[in-house]
């Protein structure tokens, strides 16, 4: 009997073969949300309906063997940003889509990543968006190469070659025109597979669409409630996801802690809605501990950014994935129940905060 936990969709093939996947999926009776969840791994391939996989293979004009990749371990790029690494890791060589309305901090997150990658062995490229957008200057200041067209981007990446890891940022207008798909196909054609692409929409229209960027390996959904309460980075730990999180690609400890943390935060959000309406006294005594630990975990997931230091007056923090896992485990098992919520906000690692 074949194992199903080491199967994943060939997302890059789907992206190349079916540029407008949303309408194509609807035409063959598939829900775009289901397709998106299969691409990011939120729905494991092993649990997908056969008819869904057959329909996707038909759309991509490929066989099931080409559509479904077996046993290939996906490598994550560790950002040392707690909530990203824990809940929706970057798949190296994949495509990340940021779903947010303007003002939710998506460009700050991208600028922070570019800043961090400057100290790593990555070449960073920004395909310059049209128009003026708040926060765009932060991207420009922290990127190594700026291009103005898809053609220029292709030339610069081709010159860098396949021996270097590349971080590439572009906005959604190039997805709509098909430029991103063509660029990725052309790069694959010359043997360059080392480009990790970040797609952003500066209009906010992505929030209302099912597959605004096409198939993705990683999806970061920004949360208006977290923004309103200044819980930055405001990336939703429940709706953001990554194909790296599929069981075969992830360290078992990471997978287990991530699942437990999501469960706690899901229940915490339900209880918080009750508190907002009726007050904390309405929470059953048996649920009070869950509420308080969820509150602490949410506070812990906040993080100061280096690029924001002039505005926040807080030093930027880097937290390794292993430290994040250790800290979250302590929050989950009650080791930090005695700490005030405020003590956990924007602290980096708990261990370092105690040191």
TrEMBL record:
It holds the Pfam family ATP-synt_VA_C. One of its GO terms (cellular component) is proton-transporting ATP synthase complex. It is found in: Membrane. The keyword Membrane applies. Keywords: ATP synthesis, ATP-binding, CF(1), Ion transport, Membrane, Nucleotide-binding, Translocase, Transport. Residues 249-320 form the ATP synthase A/B type C-terminal domain. One of its GO terms (molecular function) is proton-transporting ATP synthase activity, rotational mechanism. InterPro entries: ATP-synt_VA_C, ATPase_alpha/beta_chains, ATPase_F1/V1_b/a_C, P-loop_NTPase. Belongs to the ATPase alpha/beta chains family. This is ATP synthase A/B type C-terminal domain-containing protein.
């Amino acid at each position: 009997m074949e194992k199903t936990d080491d199967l994943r969709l060939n997302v890059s093939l789907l992206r190349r073969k079916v540029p407008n996947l949303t309408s194509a999926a609807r035409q063959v009776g598939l829900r775009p949300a289901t397709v998106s969840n299969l691409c990011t791994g939120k729905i494991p391939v092993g649990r997908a309906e056969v008819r869904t996989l057959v329909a996707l293979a038909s759309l991509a004009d490929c066989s099931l063997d080409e559509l479904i990749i077996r046993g290939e371990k996906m490598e994550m790029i560790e950002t040392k940003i707690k909530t990203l690494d824990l809940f929706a890791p970057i798949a190296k060589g994949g495509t990340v889509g940021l779903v947010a309305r303007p003002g939710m901090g998506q460009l700050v997150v991208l600028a922070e990543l570019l800043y961090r990658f400057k100290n790593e062995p990555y070449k960073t490229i920004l395909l310059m968006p049209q128009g003026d957008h708040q926060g765009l200057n932060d991207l420009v200041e922290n990127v190594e190469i700026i291009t103005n067209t898809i053609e220029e981007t292709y030339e610069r990446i081709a010159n860098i070659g396949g021996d270097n890891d590349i971080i590439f940022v572009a906005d959604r207008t190039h997805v709509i025109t098909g430029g991103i798909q063509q660029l990725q196909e052309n790069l694959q054609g010359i043997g360059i597979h080392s480009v990790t692409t970040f797609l952003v929409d500066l209009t906010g229209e992505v929030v209302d669409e099912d597959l605004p960027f096409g198939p993705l390996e990683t999806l970061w959904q920004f949360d208006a409630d977290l923004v309103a309460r200044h819980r930055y980075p405001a990336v939703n730990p429940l709706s953001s996801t990554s194909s790296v999180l599929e069981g075969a690609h992830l360290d078992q400890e990471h997978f287990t802690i991530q699942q437990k943390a999501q469960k706690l935060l899901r229940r915490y959000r339900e209880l918080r809605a009750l508190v907002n309406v009726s007050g904390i006294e309405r929470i059953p005594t048996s649920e009070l501990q869950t509420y308080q630990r969820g509150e602490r975990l949410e506070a812990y997931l906040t993080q100061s950014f280096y690029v924001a230091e002039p505005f926040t007056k807080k030093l930027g923090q880097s937290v390794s994935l292993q430290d994040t896992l250790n800290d979250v485990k302590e929050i989950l098992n009650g080791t930090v129940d005695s700490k005030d919520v405020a003590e956990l906000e924007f602290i980096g690692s708990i261990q370092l905060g105690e040191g």
